């Protein structure tokens, strides 16, 4: 009987120890892996440290529309910066009807792209190719090589709900290790301000760098640090030759006015010093707006122009982008 009681006591003692050890681990996994931004997610960094603290403007529901291509007067081909339909809301406010498609659906700008667009029913005037700085060279090279596409674009009408502030959710996917790593990273950054160097050496996803006057540019708790995508640092800048290659693609079009909306990498706006010749060439050649030069100035007047925890723009940033693109189309139409 005594042996049995002793066994029960030891079992209870062992269970208590395991419970005390596992409870904080489970709690961390449930509360720390509540990622909202793409950079906090891939970098295993805390939203408490890097989430924006600014309430963003609300875009009216009736401006969150992608029209069918046969009803549109502006055709937008782009990536995740366009599929959210945020910057296009400025077009709708000014009476234009944009149709938006992802590059995955259209493919590259093949030699017969204009014919394909016309066969799809587009009777508008403007085509906008949106691409990020990181991917513009590959997209242009892929397009130059492409001679023919058999695709026609489907008649898609998209109505999106107004965007609300993202709410962190409890993690139920069992990412225990990620939760612990996120907490460790947070403790390091909050208590050892040189730890970003160690984290960058270990990281294959997101980089952290101190930012001069960072708290004038960002609103997150660790606002003296900026969070950036590691792939941005693989290349110094866009080749100036890319401008001539874009002109060759544009020369394939005779019915439509073609513009390119090249979105700067977040790091190019806030942290890296890169040559401006490509961006100035875009503006001088009326290929598209010079977003890099504009964003480098605007970051001081629009806090969180880019979201602190993300590679993408904030809603305020998207609305500013829409104003720039709309103004450029007006200039293009006046040519």
TrEMBL record:
<keyword id="KW-0472">Membrane</keyword>
<feature type="transmembrane region" description="Helical">
    <location>
        <begin position="12"/>
        <end position="30"/>
    </location>
</feature>
<protein>
    <recommendedName>
        <fullName>SGNH hydrolase-like domain-containing protein, acetyltransferase AlgX</fullName>
    </recommendedName>
</protein>
<keyword id="KW-0812">Transmembrane</keyword>
<keyword id="KW-1133">Transmembrane helix</keyword>
